[in-house]
Predict the 3D structure of the following.
Amino acid sequence: MNLFHIQATLQETDWTASFLENNFIGIGWPATGDLEHEPTEEWKDQLVQRYKIGKTELSDALDTIHTFVYVMQDGDYVLIKDDEWAYVGDMGDYFYDDSHGTGEEYICHRRGVTWLGRIPLTELNDKVLELLIHYSIIAKFEHPISQAQLEPWVSITSVTNEGENHSSVRVDEGTIQEALNVLKKSLHSEQEDLRIRAAAAILQYAKS
């Protein structure tokens, strides 16, 4: 499993609210068509013909498309952000949707997302903050995902046919109690950051 950050402002339009409300993420260049099964040379031709972009911008665009279509995978995590929060989601497969048109006001290259939770930007560690300020449209977290320390803020649930929420991770009661005991001990740690995260994890468990 990998973690990515994707810019939510494209062509000076902020898509954050739409991404969250409609459960997807996306990138620009909508007029290229579905590129999932097209060779890279076709990508170049489409971008040059339809967007008249230069070599440097072309290289960046190709890298972004390749990452979005092929590097990102179903089940990877993605982050988007606004001025106060980072939002964590579980990505689905790539698809192309031109049902509303292919103008620059539309996002056609898409991945479905199940949003799992949100985190105050002030609570993110330095590694994740570095990811969020990366200049690229898509940036990959270049550390083990455990080092992102997202767990206290992420709620992983699935919805049954009856509409009830159940945890998708089955853990026996003994293990849960052991984990809670570790968190309770961490509340008295000399490290303030550890105390805060332990408190957040306990509160998250209490709400579930």
